[in-house]
Amino acid sequence: MPSKKLTRIDLEPARGLSVVFVFGFHLLGVAIGMQNLPWDGLTRNLHFDLGWSLLPFTPFTLGWHGVAVFFAISGYCIQLSWLQGNRSWISFGKRRFYRLFPTYLVWLLIFTLLAWLLPNIFTFKSDITQFVTHALLIHNWSGWTLWGINPSFWSIAVEIQLYALLPALVWMAHRFSWGKALAVTAVIEVLLRFPWQWIVGVDAGTYLPEVNVLGVTLAYWFSWSMGAWVASRQYAGAPQPLAKLPLLLAVLSVLVCWYIKPLSGYSFMAASFATCVWITKKLNNAEKTAEQPSLGTKRSQNPLYGVLSVIGVCSYSLYLLHQPLMVAFNTLFIRDLGIHTAVKMLIHMGVLLPVLSLIAYCSYQVIEKPTAMWGRKP
């Protein structure tokens, strides 16, 4: 049992902001054909070659790190859920299955059908092999199926497999220590992300042509486990060492890794680390606030905070559905318009994102929320 009543923090705005950045990241690929700023030797150019009008959208080139935020928050929430539950792996697996898989399966079926009926609009690969591997959540094991049906689905398979690794992580933490468990996961992730081509001139693809490191689950184990470690310390009532670190410094580490080419593979780890620093600081602030009854624990009245909270609630559904529908919307209505690329970006952000958020909220209410409740039943 925890040493004291656990402090609750609101993570929905972070989820909401993260999925908006993921949306923007994918939108760059659809609207201008590139999602990252180009390399100029060992560093990145700080603007697109298409002109300075796209400068306001350059922050979205960091949108890939939104997945890192999701993974760190997922590790934190899943470990806390495990600790507060009945410690039954069967019960835990059932809850996670009903929380994620039914909604995922519905959208998998929808996009598979749309790709079959409208192949010129829904252009991602879709065949029986794609569907079976996606349904079994093993499509990340091969580069041939990694981007099929809906490219965003790659991270769902990885996350489910990270859940399956939780028993191993918990065993290592109890058998040895959390420090040693994190050291093991860190070494594995660092080695998988190491820029071997800079040292020996080859990468894994030379020997394993069907493998894409992006889909290798162990390449995210430490990034996910850091959140689980934070949850374990909170549950035990132990101090949070990461809370002592400057958040700005953690964020700068993300930017440095993203900016320097040999370090770019580690920007995901840095983003997960920064997220955990932020969570620990939020926990500490929430505990201090709870100790002052006159202040209470009121939610922010900032309208943007409220909007991001709502998007955060349905962020899973929005993540599942946004990419194929974005491509379809662009193909049908935007691509051939004789307007500036920056204006196309604004239309997607101002029109498509709210519409998809509404669809995602309906998906949350109709599919995601009810099936999650089924999983909680004895």
Radius of gyration: 21 Å
| Helix and strand element order | HEEHHHHHHHHHHHHHH
How many strand units? 2
- Low confidence ranges: 204-211, 293-297
Assembly classification: single chain
Descriptive tags:
64% helix, 378 residues, 2 strands, mainly alpha, globular, two-stranded antiparallel ribbon, 15 helices
Can you characterise this structure?
The chain has 15 helices and two strands. A hairpin with a 2-residue loop joins strand 1 and strand 2. With 378 residues, it is an all-alpha fold. The chain has a two-stranded antiparallel ribbon with strand order 1-2. 64% of the residues lie in helices and 1% in strands. The chain has helices at 12-32, 65-84, 89-117, 128-135, 154-164, 166-175, 178-193, 196-199, 204-207, 221-236, 247-259, 267-290, 303-313, 315-334, 341-376; strands at residues 39-40, 43-44. The chain starts with 11 loop residues before the first helix and ends with a helix.
